[in-house]
User: Which sequence fits this backbone?
């Protein structure tokens, strides 16, 4: 996808209600800092994979699961090699927690909720 003159890449993030509330508080434009036990922020490259995590994991652990979609500057994302975390479509980017502010600065547009599970 291209937004203006900067090419962007669509990413998805399965999330629970606590993280989603922090995203809302940011004005739908940034992911919150990682917790100490979360050294990596991992958005995913496949919507179906994000749906599976939100529906099957977040609902069980948090009572609700959400899938968000957002665009990130493609050139910036090149620093993060795609990680295959299982099957062919289980693809993630692994963003070190200490780089999350810079990652957030490269989000183009807002973060939107595209699926909700309870």
Assistant:
């Amino acid at each position: 996808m291209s937004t203006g003159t900067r090419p962007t890449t669509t990413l998805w993030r399965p999330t629970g209600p606590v993280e989603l509330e922090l995203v809302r508080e940011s004005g739908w434009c940034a992911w919150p800092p990682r917790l100490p036990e979360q050294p990596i922020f991992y958005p995913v490259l496949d919507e179906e994979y994000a749906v599976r995590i939100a529906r099957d994991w977040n609902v069980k652990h948090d009572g609700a699961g959400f899938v968000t979609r957002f665009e990130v500057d493609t050139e910036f994302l090149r620093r993060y090699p795609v990680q295959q975390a299982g099957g062919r479509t289980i693809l993630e980017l692994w963003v070190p927690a200490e780089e999350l502010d810079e990652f957030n600065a490269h989000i183009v547009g807002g973060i939107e909720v595209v699926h909700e599970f309870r």
About this structure: Residues 2-117 form a domain with the ADP-ribosylation fold fold (CATH 3.20.170). The radius of gyration is 13 Å. The chain has four helices and eight strands.
